[in-house]
Amino acid sequence: MNRGILFLPFLGFLPLVIPTCPLRCKCATNIIDCTSKGLTVTKLPVAFRPSAEIINLAYNSLTSIPSGLFDNLKNLQIVYLQGNPWECNCDILYLRSWLQWQQNRTFYRDVRCASPAHLQDRIIAYLTEDEIISTCQHWYCMLALLSQLFLLIFLLVQAILVIFIICYLRRFRRMTAKTWSTSQDLHQHADT
Fold first, then answer.
1. Is the predicted pLDDT of residue 30 greater than 50, yes or no?
2. ∠ CA(31), CA(36), CA(37), 5° rounding?
3. What does the alpha-carbon distance between residue 173 and residue 192 come to, in Å, rounded to a whole number?
4. 3-class SS letters over 36-55
5. What would the mean pLDDT of 149-168 be, rounded to a whole number?
6. Is 27 helix (H, G, I), strand (E, B) or coil?
7. Is-above-0.70 flag for pTM?
8. Taking the CA of residue 80 as centre, how many other CA atoms within 13 Å lie in the half-sphere pointing to its CB?
9. Could you give the CA distance from residue 16 to residue 4 in angstroms, rounded to a whole number?
10. Which helix (H) or strand (E) holds 32?
11. Which residues sit opposite 14 in a β-bridge?
12. d(Cα 86, Cα 40) in Å, to the nearest integer?
C-alpha cells in the first residue's frame, strides 16, 4: 500500500513520457493525421507513437521540426510535410538532415523554404549546410557585438574604480602627512 502511494505522484508525469496523439489530430495505431490543424513547433508532441508508419503534418504553421522527433520511429514510412511555412535557418538543420536520409526524396519535393527571401521556394532536402548556416551568422554577430559591449562596460567600470582608488589613496596620503606633521608639531610644542 505504501509503495502505491509513493508511486501516485509519478502518474502526473506520464503524459510527458508516453507519446500521445497531438491535440486536435486523429490517431490510429500506425497513422497520425494532423493535416490543417494549425500546428506550430511548440504544439508538436515531444515524441510520436513508436508504431507510427504515416504522419501527416501537411498544411500547418510549422517553421521547423524539433531535433530528434522522427529518430526513434523505426516503422515510419512517410511524413507529409508540404504546405508549411518552413524557415530555412539554423532550426531547419535537423529536418534537412532527416530528409537527406530518406530513400525516396521525391515525396519531399514540395517541402520548400518560405523564408528567408534568398532561399524562398528552394527544396529543403537539397539545401547545402553552408546555405543554411549563412542565415545563422547574424546571431553570432549579435552575440559578438553584445559580448564586446559588455566587455567595454566592464572595463569602464574597472577604470572608474581604479581612478576612485587612486584618488582615495592620494587623499589618504595627504591626510596621513597632515596628521603626521600635526603630531610632530604637538610633540615639539610639548617639549618646549
1. yes
2. 85
3. 29
4. CCCCCHHHCCCCCCCCCCEE
5. 91
6. strand
7. no
8. 14
9. 20
10. strand 31-33
11. none
12. 11
User: Distance (Å, rounded) from C-alpha 136 to C-alpha 119?
Assistant: 13
What distances in angstroms separate CA 122 from CA 100, 117, 118, 160, one per listed residue?
A: 14, 10, 9, 54
- Residues with Cβ within 8 Å of residue 2, at least 6 apart in sequence: none
Reference 128, options 142, 118, 138; nearest CA is 118
Confidence of residue 145 (pLDDT cuts 50, 70, 90): confident
Tell me whether the omega of the peptide bond preceding residue 116 falls within 30 degrees of 0, making it cis: yes
In tens, the pLDDT along 63-121 reads: 999 999 999 899 999 999 999 999 999 899 999 999 999 988 788 999 999 999 999 99
Q: Which three cell numbers stand for residue 180?
A: 603626521
DSSP β-ladder status, 54-56 and 31-33: parallel
Higher per-residue pLDDT: 186 or 18: 186
Sign of CA dihedral 138, 141, 145, 147: positive
Grid cell at residue 117: 527571401
How large is the greatest C-alpha to C-alpha distance in the chain, in angstroms?
111
* Grid cell at residue 47: 515524441
